[in-house]
Amino acid sequence: xxxxxxxxxxxxxEPCNHLVDIGSDHGYLALAAFQKGxxxxxxATDLRPQPLIQSQKTFAQANVFEHVSxxxxxxxxxxxxxxxxxxxxxxxADLIIKIITQDLDKFKKMSQIITQANTRIPxxxxxxxxxxxxxxxxxxxxxGFFYIAQSYHYTGNIYQLNEFNExxxxxxxxxxPITINYLKSEEAKLKLILENNPSSKKHHHLLSLLKRxxxxxxx
Length: 219
Prior knowledge:
- The chain has 219 residues and is of the alpha/beta class.
- 45% of the residues lie in helices and 24% in strands.
- It folds into 2 domains: 4-160, Rossmann fold (3-Layer(aba) Sandwich); 177-218, no CATH class.
- Strand 2 (39-46), helix 3 and strand 3 form a beta-alpha-beta unit.
- The longest helix has 20 residues, at 177-196.
- It starts with a helix and ends with a helix.
């Protein structure tokens, strides 16, 4: 059974021919996408051999031996097959951006790029928009922590999000209870920061943005 985090990412995957799961770990997400009929062929990649061995075990235990390949690679560097969709999840935003920018031309050709960063999500939204990627979907779950994932595709146009959307979510459902709880959690963090640093103009400003959005959600 998939975790709430992986189930959220699975919901973002659109039907495609070739999916690459970058940093595939145990391969649970890629296998679920294959079993659901969302993808025809899968490429599991990782920088280290051990996670790829775990992915192989996962697919073998499910009696799936065809339509999956395993590539020891830094992102897409060693991937030579044409790919429709990439999943880059469970890592920091800086690493996600590095993986995309080092093979930017490959990512530009994809119909879908799914990201789930554990750090610096505002930086990820801002940078991908500046690189010409438009966000199509954004989802959030609570699975011990709040996890947020996005789906992008390349257009070449520069997308500059407003301050709130860059910081707290571009197209999250404002009426969704999980989204509201997430915003309230961020509000509590800002209040704690301001207790220790009451003169911080930046955090006062972010708090006012949050309060305004929470008031809109309650209307």
